[in-house]
């Protein structure tokens, strides 16, 4: 049984994230989506909210679960028994940073990172851009799953 760990901030989860998760669900026996709780960032959604959004998005895949984590990614790798870390890449600029992280994670734990390029239709998509578009009242349908669109609209309405 091969377990893949798909880490990220997922603030909020986008259709690009789900594209990577879906492909992992087809490749691996078990997929754990690991939501980073990074104290250096000020997320729009708390870690528990992001986990709940992802759990709702991922119900169609029996082998996918989500959980949050603090600290080093390699600690979560050990806790869940992951065999591989999977990261989605949108562009070459993503690769430069992600390669450094992959090499450090390999050094710390021996865990291999597998890079999967995003589907071309999602190559421009980022959580930051989605939040910006949503904050100005722009259309986010097609960028995020319906449950995430609802949550974004509610959260941004509360902040106004």
Descriptive notes:
It is a single chain. The protein is α/β, with parallel strands linked by helices and 160 residues long. The chain has one domain: 3-Layer(aba) Sandwich (Rossmann fold), CATH 3.40.50. The protein is built from 6 helices and 5 strands. The chain has helices at residues 15-27, 47-57, 73-80, 92-109, 127-135, 146-159; strands at 3-8, 30-36, 64-69, 84-89, 112-117. Helix 1 links the parallel strand 1 and strand 2.
Question: What distinguishing features does this structure have?
Answer:
globular, alpha/beta, 160 residues, 5-stranded parallel beta sheet
Explain briefly what this protein structure is:
The chain has helices at residues 15-27, 47-57, 73-80, 92-109, 127-135, 146-159; strands at 3-8, 30-36, 64-69, 84-89, 112-117.
Biggest sheet character? 5 strands, parallel
Distance between the termini: 47 Å
Into which percentage range does the β-strand content fall? 15-25%
Percent range of helical residues:
40-55%
Rounded mean pLDDT score: 93
- CATH topology assignment: Rossmann fold
Number of helices: 6
Q: What Rg, in angstroms, do the CA atoms define?
A: 15 Å
| Unreliable segments of 5+ consecutive residues | none
The assigned CATH architecture is 3-Layer(aba) Sandwich
In CATH, the homologous superfamily goes by the name HUPs
| Content-based structural category | alpha/beta
Instruction: State the CATH class.
Output: Alpha Beta
What is the topology, as strand order, of the major beta sheet? 3-2-1-4-5
Number of domains: 1
Count of distinct strands: 5
Shape: globular
Spell the H/E element sequence.
Answer: EHEHEHEHEHH
